[in-house]
Amino acid sequence: MATVSVIAFSFLLTTALSAPVKYEDPAMTLFRGEDFHIMLPSLSFEVTFRNRSVPRLGDVFLLRGGIVVHSRAKLNHHLSHLIIDAVGEGDEGVYTVKDLENPEDIVRLKLIVRDCSNEQIIKYGDNYHIPLLGVTPPITLEYRPSAVEANQTSRPALVLLTSTGLSRDGYQGRISVNERYVTLRTVTGADEGSYSVRDAEGDIQRKECLNVKEHHNFVTLPLGKTLKINLILNSSLVHLYYSPEKDPTPHLLLDKGEFTSALTDLGLEDRLILDGSWVYLESVKGADVGEFKITDILGFTVSSIHLVLQPYKLESLYVAIIAMLGLLVFLLLVCLLSCLIKVKKRAKRAAALKKIAQDSGKEDEGDAFRQVVKNITKLSDDSKHSQADNTEKSQSTEVDIKTAAAYSERCC
């Protein structure tokens, strides 16, 4: 990080000192404990500092006549940078670099110090643990809200827990200490900020930031099921909003434990039920798809529930029954097709026999008779394979026999 700071400021200073023009104050943000490097084109430059929190003190000299004149500053080995070691809130302000040989060449650098570099992300309502390894008890716990930590780090911190074990108003019962951790229970959006742990000597040993995030839940339900919404907090301490998928405008459904008239307008009346810190939406419909958002009384988002309906699916038993019915229909169609083919074949054979019987007197009678006997024999063989065709085949055989008898009488 120090290398990045050096490169960044070297670039800024080189650009700024390259021509005698008027500049805006470039700003640099560092975390508490990092080193601040100010590039010096030569030792003839003068460096002053104006404290952000105590501007009435005016400019304080850090480097003058090539000599460091302030305890917070030092020169590096190459005499190319002025270094402010382990910056803190008291180092925030404007640093002015001036060339005494060319008074028009002035660069002002604005330093902003973030209160901590170590951040924990905790979900709303969970517990926040700060490790105490290596910290000599009794401890003191201090706190700065997020707005103060980011922009007003010079302001004094709030003492949440004293070395005698006393908690600040509003924190009684929420802070506990053991050998390993100091714990803040059930964090909310209002707890976001930085926390400092001082040891028995009053020195800061731990510096951490807390970032409270909302709960995100994506719920997919079948049509007609029940949606369960966990308010996390007591219903009297939250607001419940609903934004339909087709209209993202939020509608207030629950206001500090009481349902609003929006239920009727949205078609949720008699389906939305409050039970303690839970809200139930019964018999979900397609029109219920959307987002349900829970906020606390200060406006911080506690949780977001995104409702999506599951595509309609048949039960496994119904799917099996339909599959079996489909198979039966397919088999019936195959049987029907087979029967149609057999009927057509029989019809062709019957027509052929009829034609032979009609033409038996015109053609060679011996050949016609042999053809009739051959057809009768073939039909007899086919009757062994299909008993259902016996009746029709017997009728066809009877016709051929009668024809053969008539022919025999003529011959006799």
What would you note in describing this structure?
The chain has helices at residues 2-17, 146-151, 262-265, 316-358, 365-385, 390-411, and strands at residues 27-31, 36-39, 45-51, 59-64, 67-68, 73-75, 81-84, 93-99, 106-114, 118-123, 128-131, 140-145, 158-161, 175-177, 181-184, 193-198, 204-213, 215-221, 227-230, 238-244, 251-255, 258-259, 272-275, 278-281, 290-296, 301-309. A hairpin with a 6-residue loop joins β20 (238-244) and β21. It is built from 6 helices and 26 strands. The strands form 6 sheets. The protein has a 6-stranded mixed sheet. A 6-stranded mixed sheet has the order 18-26-25-20-21-22, with no helix packed on it. A 5-stranded mixed sheet has the order 10-17-16-12-13. 20% of the residues are buried. With 412 residues, it is of the alpha+beta class. α5 (365-385) runs antiparallel to α6 (390-411).
Characteristic terms for this protein:
26 strands; 6-stranded mixed sheet; elongated; disordered N terminus; 412 residues; alpha+beta
Secondary-structure blueprint of this entry?
Layout: H1 2-17, E1 27-31, E2 36-39, E3 45-51, E4 59-64, E5 67-68, E6 73-75, E7 81-84, E8 93-99, E9 106-114, E10 118-123, E11 128-131, E12 140-145, H2 146-151, E13 158-161, E14 175-177, E15 181-184, E16 193-198, E17 204-213, E18 215-221, E19 227-230, E20 238-244, E21 251-255, E22 258-259, H3 262-265, E23 272-275, E24 278-281, E25 290-296, E26 301-309, H4 316-358, H5 365-385, H6 390-411
Helix pairs in contact: 5-6
